[in-house]
Amino acid sequence: MEDLTELLREIDRLKDRLDALRPLDNPSILHALDLEYTYESNRIEGNTLTLRETELVIDKGLTVGGKSMREHLEAINHHEAALLLADLVRERRPLTESLVKQLHGLILRGIDRDNAGVYRSVPVMIAGSRHVPPQPWAVPVQMEQCFAWYDAEGPKTHPVVLAAEMHERIATIHPFIDGNGRTARLAMNLILLCAGYPIAIIPGDTNSRRDYYDALEKANLEGDKSDFHRLIARHVQAMALRLIQIAGGQP
Question: Homologous superfamily of 4-246 in CATH?
Answer without folding.
Answer: Fido-like domain (1.10.3290.10)
